[in-house]
Amino acid sequence: MEDTQKQDKLPPIKYTKRVGHLFEHVRDLDNLKEAIKDAARHKRKRKEVQKVLEDIDGHALELQRMLDEETFIPAKYTMRRINDGIQKKTRDIAIPRFWPDQCVHHAFVRIFKQIVLHSAYPFSCGCVPGKGTHGAKTAIEKWIRKDPKHTKYVLKLDVRKCYPTMNHEELRKKLQRRIKDKKFLRLADRIIASFQQPMATHERLLPETDAVGIPVGLFTSPWFCNFFFQDIDHKVAEKTGTAHNVRYVDDMVLFDSSKRRLHKALEFIEAEVKATKQTVKDNWQVFILSKRPLDFLGFKFYPNKTTIRKSIMLRISRKARTIARAAYASIRNAHAMVSYIGYIVNSDSQRFYEKWVRPFVNIKHLKGVIADEDRKQHQACVAV
């Protein structure tokens, strides 16, 4: 009880040049309980998850002891290879065990994300609450419609295999420049060192000084990625002189009235990325927006309209016909279709909707299916 009272009196995080006193926020019992609940979301039917939730106070104390004594050792991740999207990109997904790994990851991120968001570039949108795809799309549309002079030319580029090639030592250096809490840094280091890219391909592991790779699938990875590119975001905005810039994870788009300035910005970004031991893909593009649309985030941006990428239109129409043929709408198909409707609502695609979606699915019914499932999840949460 006394320990809980102390936790309640924790001072807020002070955002100095190098931030300290973070570990005490991670090991706070309230933070650990919320982290367990967050990690359990959409997994409450699993026996291992139910066992933890039945005694959440006891497991929070056990997690606190584990963190205080620094006895948390990440288990070997289960690797799963998937073919993602229409283009069937091969991705290696790491799946950590629920207890204690996922719970520790959520407890860590609940504090670490505050550091990331505090110093984030305003138009760094990937995996950021309140921004994401919609935030990046809204910004691009605003720039194109209201500032046509400075959005005449577009530079589009992305980092080659961003997650698999992220250098552990470079990430640690960036963390040490921003954070001075040694216990928090040791926890971050343990999470970072728990995976190397050779683990996904069953190759020989590298010495930790040369190790690369953060795994797709871990809750911590998008936040490490956003933090890793923060200083590059600010340098590009301050030193290249380009009019508008946006980054979504490892994809960058820059706008300007000068093609020469964009080419110089490309050289600057390539040098900065190379300094972190990564590379920019060779398929970068500089083009005139009025002559061809910007294909980004699943949308095609024109000077006067925004449409959906053709491959996504195909995926939406296929999903609509799949639902129409099924005897009932599964929760998975309902979630997928309602998500796809977000593309249609946020683009100029009404004619596509009227022809290829509306005749096959009842969106109101699908939302009802999702609402019923959410109600069941909420009741299970309240019961805990």
Give a quick precis of the structure:
The chain has 384 residues and is an alpha+beta fold.
Can you walk me through this structure?
The chain has helices spanning 2-8, 23-26, 29-40, 47-54, 56-68, 98-118, 132-146, 162-165, 168-178, 182-192, 197-201, 221-228, 230-239, 259-275, 310-325, 331-345, 350-356, 363-383; strands spanning 78-84, 89-95, 153-158, 244-248, 251-256, 285-288, 294-296, 299-301, 306-308. The chain is α+β, with helices and mostly antiparallel strands and 384 residues long. The chain has three domains: 22-119, no CATH class; 131-164 and 212-302, Reverse transcriptase/Diguanylate cyclase domain (Alpha-Beta Plaits), CATH 3.30.70.270; 305-380. The protein has a four-stranded antiparallel beta sheet, sandwiched between helices. A three-stranded antiparallel beta sheet has the order 7-8-9. Strands 1-2 form a two-stranded antiparallel sheet. The longest helix is centred in the first third of the chain and has 21 residues, at 98-118.
Which tags fit this structure?
9 strands; RT_dom; 4-stranded antiparallel beta sheet; alpha+beta; Alpha-Beta Plaits; 384 residues; disordered N terminus
Proportion of helical residues: 40-55%
In terms of per-residue confidence, which ranges show pLDDT below 50 for 5 or more consecutive residues? Answer: 1-7
Can you count the beta strands? 9
CATH class of the largest domain: Alpha Beta
Strand order of the largest sheet: 4-5-3-6
Mean of residue pLDDT values: 90
Main sheet, how many strands, which sense, barrel?
Answer: 4 strands, antiparallel
* CATH third-tier fold name of the largest domain: Alpha-Beta Plaits
Overall tally of structural domains: 3
Which architecture of the largest domain per CATH?
2-Layer Sandwich
Within CATH, the superfamily of the largest domain carries the name Reverse transcriptase/Diguanylate cyclase domain
Whole-angstrom Rg: 23 Å
How much strand? 5-15%
Give me the strand/helix succession.
HHHHHEEHHEHHHHHHEEHEEEEHHHH
Q: Termini separation (Å)?
A: 21 Å
Alpha-beta content class? alpha+beta
What gross morphology would you assign? globular
Can you count the helices? 18
